[in-house]
Design a protein that fits this description.
Elements lengths: L12 H31 L6 H11 L11 H14 L2 H26 L6 H13 L12 H21 L6 H15 L10 H4 L9 H29 L8 H11 L1
Length: 258
């Protein structure tokens, strides 16, 4: 009985138990992720490649460098941890631990929510596959931009599943949010283009429907918002609001990579 309102709670017992289990599961998974983050911080290794050392340099001592124009979202993300630690190597360990622990958390919920009849052991199985990868945990402490893209891709994919469960997948808000994630991932590394795949999930047939036009407009608005957000960071960190848009910077980027 609900004595505060004088009305009986008519929600089926099974659904009430499911909600309780979901809350308990959320607390357990979140607490486990926090412990995982701490363990990763303690046992993370260090840098192994010149390019990640280069990004660490610009994260700690930021200055314009058009040759890595398409890495600055990764650099800004990493810089946050460098500012907290005031030590590039310790900051890199914390950054790597955060990215991997977050991906463990996201991977669990991806496995958990992939099917409507999935259970907690589906999430654990997904995490087991994550830990079994030879390209992930053995490189704990290595701050490749690829791991940043992996983080954003996981976040976008989970956003699709959560929105779908809430019945809000094919909404302008979902398209807008996923487009921002796509743009940030793309400016972390060119492989971030794969983060455009979750955006496709919001569209439906027929292709040229009025709803799809609204979703496309929301996606474009999300990309523009992502550009504006990163332009703000360019201005705050580098002192150049139009750093990403200058043709000479793009020319140097292509001349360095092609």
């Amino acid at each position: 009985m609900d004595f505060s309102s004088g009305r009986e709670d008519l929600t089926p017992v099974g659904q009430r138990n499911d909600r309780l289990i979901s809350k308990i599961e959320l607390v357990i998974v979140s607490a486990t992720t926090l412990v995982t983050f701490i363990v990763f911080c303690l046992y993370a290794g260090g840098s192994i490649a010149w390019d990640e050392l280069l990004y660490m340099h610009y994260s700690h001592w930021p200055e314009p460098e058009p040759k890595i124009l398409n890495r600055f979202a990764h650099i800004y993300f990493q810089r946050f941890f460098f500012l907290i630690c005031d030590d590039p190597f310790l900051g890199a360990r914390f950054f790597s631990a955060f990215v991997h622990a977050s991906c463990v958390y996201l991977t669990y919920w991806l496995g958990r929510l992939l099917m409507k009849d999935s259970h907690w052991w589906n999430g654990l199985l997904a995490v087991a596959f994550y830990f079994g990868s030879q390209k992930l945990l053995p490189y704990l402490g290595v701050t490749f931009a690829d791991y940043t893209v992996m983080f954003w891709l996981s976040a976008g994919a989970l956003g699709v599943l959560v929105a779908d469960r809430a019945g809000r997948l094919r909404t302008p808000y979902a398209a807008y949010s996923l487009a921002i994630i796509f743009l940030i991932a793309l400016r972390s590394k060119e492989t971030g283009i794969v983060c455009g795949l979750p955006i496709l999930a919001v569209f439906s047939f027929p292709i040229f429907s009025r709803q799809n036009v609204r979703l496309l407009c929301a996606s474009v608005a999300g990309v523009l918002s992502g550009l504006a957000i990163l332009a703000a960071f360019d201005f705050i960190v580098l002192g150049d609001l139009f750093y990403f848009f200058r043709p000479e910077n793009w020319q140097r980027l292509f001349s360095f990579n092609i």
